[in-house]
Amino acid sequence: MIDTHTHLYDQAFDPDRAEVVARAHAAGVSACILPAIDQSTWQAQQACTGFFSGFCHSASGLHPTSVNENFREELDFARQTLPGAVAVGEIGIDAYWSREFLKEQVEVFEEQLSWASEKDLPVIIHCRSAFPELLESLRRTRSSGLRGILHAWSGSTEVFTEANRYGHFLMGIGGVITYKNSHLVNVLQKTSLTEIVLETDAPWLTPSPFRGHRNESSYLMYILAKVAEIKGLSPEETDSRTTQNALSLFNLKPCNE
Ligand SMILES: [Zn+2]
Known about the structure:
TIM Barrel, 9 helices, alpha/beta, globular, 8 strands, eight-stranded parallel β-sheet
């Protein structure tokens, strides 16, 4: 399995990061993608991908909830960190926490979409309570070769399909799929496995049966099991297909450790 979205560098993992990685390995996770947040988390992210090189891969970008009046400086910084990144992310629009800098968020998002085209990198998109804005940005920028993940997808099948008119997007499925009465079950039923990748978003969005505790990459197996159950496939088949999707998107080599 590949955890296509974890913040393993978060301080929640400071006490036992190596054990967390060992448990992920033991659970069958062969690689992790670590999306960036902003300048303040960059050093920890670099240390983590350096220490677990070959297992952890960095994405670079400015997270929408970190967009405020100093976004120019943050963007300049994020741009400098692009060499070596496997993706531009996480980027996007978040109107759930605050709409104060929504205009700036849109500007920052669209600028980073253009980086992805320029560098021919996939994107990792965070979109919360801002689906019309997301579609509008994708429509307006029409970046060439745009591809990536709509991470922690919480939208409808219709919006997902609409987004795919402007690029090739995979749906990032995480712990929320394991929650009782998740509307995502219905969305997943209507989505082909060729369009799905798995993610934890650790330390957040913990799947059941560990909901309420810190999330970690080894719990990806609970997400895999739920996706397999919904799709009526074996976990092995579901793993091999979603892993292949992630390998091709991030241009990673298969790893059999
Ligand atoms: Zn994230």
